[in-house]
Amino acid sequence: MIEAKNLNLYYGTFQALNDINLKLPEKSVTALIGPSGCGKSTFLRTFNRMNDLIPGVRIEGEVIVNDRNIYNKQIDIDQLRKSVGMVFQKPNPFAKSIYENVAFGLRVNGVSDEKKIKARVEESLQQAALWDEVKDNLKKSAYALSGGQQQRLCIARALAVEPTILLMDEPASALDPISTSKIEELIHELKKQYTILIVTHNMQQAARVSDYTAFFYMGSLIEFDETKTIFTHPVKQQTQNYVTGRFG
Question: What pTM value is reported for the model?
Answer without folding.
Answer: 0.94
